[in-house]
Each structure stands twice: as structure tokens, then as C-alpha cells.
């Protein structure tokens, strides 16, 4: 009897009750606004009603007039308020009728002391956990994207290199006299440093330490530290080689030349 009196969407008395093919009853306005958000399915049993709605010539045919007349007789004040456009309020007799029909108490009860605050804390904790999971997913996606960019950079560098001489040995002797010019030889060679994201972050960190005396902001320091931590996570996750930054390479070369 509860489904025939109250709407499970608005939790109020059924106003203009509409019956679906699956025999579930809702307010006409509630079900028409809900099906667009539920992919034209019944909110209760997920029965598809798209074809059924398409065949309807008039939305007013959804309303069960006999059921509406019964509800209008039981809750006249409620229906009058809805038709006038006021906030519907049940009278005492209507409240008793609703209680007898549904066997539930619909009177408003005040919350106990601290109940609202404890519920708020639970929602905050739930939001915090979801935020942590979302940050982890975003970090995983960023690591995968950075690794993909590094691989693309490595492949582009290998494509710019000329073909080895061993490839000419497989050609016939008649073709050895002709000079083969690859497309890569026609364009100017671009010297690109074979650096990784970890090299960049370490260099930036060292440059920032030199600029501390010049009054660098704390926000820039924090961003550089985050970049370095992100690069180390990338190196640890994908086992990328930890290359020596260019500044340290030059120092090693100077030391070797002095030793010689």
C-alpha cells in the first residue's frame, strides 16, 4: 500500500500518479524528470521504458485518474496546496490517514545534540578518503604520461640518427655504386640532449639553491621539490636509468683531464 500512496522519488504523497509498464507508481513530474537521468529506466527495477514513452501520444495519459481521485479524497488539503502552488502541508486528519496506510510516523523529529555535527564529520572523512584515492589515480596517470613522453623522445632521437653502414652490405652490387640519400640526411641534424625528467628536476633544484641569496620565493622552492619528488617516483616506478646531470658530467671530465 505504501507504493500506492507515496512517491519513492520525492517521498511525498503521489500527485498525478503515473503507472509504468512495470507497475511501479510515481508522480508524473517526478518520473518525467528522473528518466532523463536514469537512461530511460525505471528508478526501482531498471526496466527500460524508452520505447514505451516514445509511443505515448500525450504525457497526460500516464496519469491513473482513478488512483488520483482516491488520493484526492484522502488528502484534499495536500492536493489543493499543490494545485495552487503552495508548499503542501498535511492536516492532522491527513496525517492520521497516512499513518494508518503506511504504518509509519511522518511527524518531524528534531535531531539530538551533536547528531548533525557527527554526521558532518563522517561526510568529511568520507570526502577525505575519496580525495586521497583520486589524487593517487591522478598521480598514476601523470607517471604513465611522463613515461610515455620520455619513450617518444627516445624514439624521436633514434629516428634522427643516420642508418649504419652495415645496412649497405645487404644491397646488391649494382646498387652499391649509386649513392643512397636518406630523408634524414637532407634535413639539418638537431642535437638534442638525452636528458630525463629526473635530470631536469635535479638541475632545477641546484639552480634554486644558487638563487636563494637573490631572494627566491618559497612557493618556487616548494614547486621544485614537488617536481623532484615526482621525477624520483617516475624513476622508481618504471626503473628508468638515473643519468648524471650535465653539470656533474662536466666536473667529471675536468677531473679526468687533470689526472691525465
Automatic annotation (TrEMBL):
SUPFAM superfamilies according to UniProt = RING/U-box
Region named Disordered:
160-194, 236-260
UniProt-listed GO biological process terms = double-strand break repair
Where located?
Answer: Nucleus
Primary localisation category: nucleus
EC number in record: 2.3.2.27
Q: Which reaction does it catalyse?
A: S-ubiquitinyl-[E2 ubiquitin-conjugating enzyme]-L-cysteine + [acceptor protein]-L-lysine = [E2 ubiquitin-conjugating enzyme]-L-cysteine + N(6)-ubiquitinyl-[acceptor protein]-L-lysine
Q: What is this protein called?
A: RING-type E3 ubiquitin transferase
